[in-house]
Design a protein that fits this description.
Layout (H helix, E strand, L loop, with lengths): L26 H17 L3 E3 L9 E4 L20 E10 L4 E6 L7 E8 L1 E7 L5 E7 H14 L15 E2 H4 L7
Antiparallel strand pairs: 1-2, 2-3, 3-6, 4-5, 5-8, 6-7
This protein binds nickel (II) ion.
């Protein structure tokens, strides 16, 4: 069990464009995924991108592992199956967009509203090099867009168009103890 420290906004590596993974089913790649899983689980993340733990590769994980209890930070995450997605390609389906509150382990303690595409198709590979492909909507689509943005050096505050919706989690939700 390795819980890595998560880089926080201000760290230049979070603004870098990450490299494609060129070799699958390697010890290094499996170790990276394990570190990411342990870190996401320990911090109740809805997703995590490799650059957030200092590895500039196009690897993201997201969703809820089977059998884990409800995610206190993102109850909606329970509807998203646990997924490893490497070298992802996103195709937006239609022009429909929706606003939703986002947080990020690299921007701790804060939330803000971001406009994202509602429907998209994603494809890529798992850690064994097996193809992963899905058409998704709503929260699942939002998580994928947020995580894949990390691979291009984009943090959600950079996507915000109304900074009046940016605030501290405990101020926005005073009655809940959300991390
Ligand atoms: Ni994030």
């Amino acid at each position: 069990m390795t819980v890595c420290s998560v880089l926080r906004m201000g760290e230049p590596l979070l603004l870098a464009v990450a490299d494609e993974v060129t070799a699958f089913d390697t010890l290094e790649l499996h170790a990276l995924i394990q570190d990411m899983e342990d870190t996401m689980a320990a911090l109740d993340g809805a997703g995590l991108a490799a650059p957030q733990i200092g590895v500039s590769l196009r690897v993201v994980i997201f969703g809820q592992e089977e059998g884990r209890s409800e995610n206190p930070r993102y109850p909606d995450a329970n509807s998203v199956p646990y997924t490893v997605l490497i070298n992802p390609k996103l195709t937006f389906l239609g022009y429909e967009q929706e606003d939703g509150l986002e947080g990020c382990l690299s921007v701790p303690g804060l939330r803000g509203i971001v406009t994202r595409y509602t429907h998209l198709h994603y494809s890529g590979f798992d850690q064994y090099g097996k193809s992963v492909e899905r058409t998704v909507s709503d929260f699942h689509a939002r998580v994928v867009q947020h995580e894949c943005d990390h691979l291009d050096g984009i943090l959600y505050p950079m996507r915000m168009t109304d900074l009046t919706t940016f605030g501290y989690t405990d101020v926005i939700f005073p009655d809940q103890s959300l991390p």
